[in-house]
Amino acid sequence: ITDQFISLVNPESEITPFVQKLTKITSKMVKTAPRFHEIAKRIIEITEGTTLVGHNIDFDIKFLNNKMKKAQTH
């Protein structure tokens, strides 16, 4: 590990009961968290030129790529 970044992200919508049960993260917990476009630059800084490893990484990569595209418009 060369760097790390830990943050909840405000999804700008309510978290469904299914996801709340799965993750133990509630809408109240993310209400004051930064929105994705506010942390996108930091994510790029620590992931550029690296290999991402994670559980269910296909989902994570699709999610990150989608959010990065949207963040470019902010």
Describe it.
This protein is 51% helix and 0% strand. The protein has helices at residues 17-23, 27-30, 36-47, 57-71. It is mainly alpha-helical and 74 residues long. Helix 3 packs across helix 4.
Compact description:
With 74 residues, the chain is mainly alpha-helical.
Q: Which features characterize this protein?
A:
single chain, 74 residues, mainly alpha
Q: State the separation between the terminal residues, measured CA to CA.
A: 30 Å
Residue share in β-strands: under 5%
Quaternary structure classification: single chain
User: Structural class of the secondary elements?
Assistant: mainly alpha
Largest sheet: number of strands, sense, barrel closure: none
Let me know the average pLDDT.
89
Q: How many DSSP-defined strands? A: 0
- What is the radius of gyration computed over CA atoms, rounded to a whole number of angstroms? 13 Å
SSE arrangement:
Layout: H1 17-23, H2 27-30, H3 36-47, H4 57-71
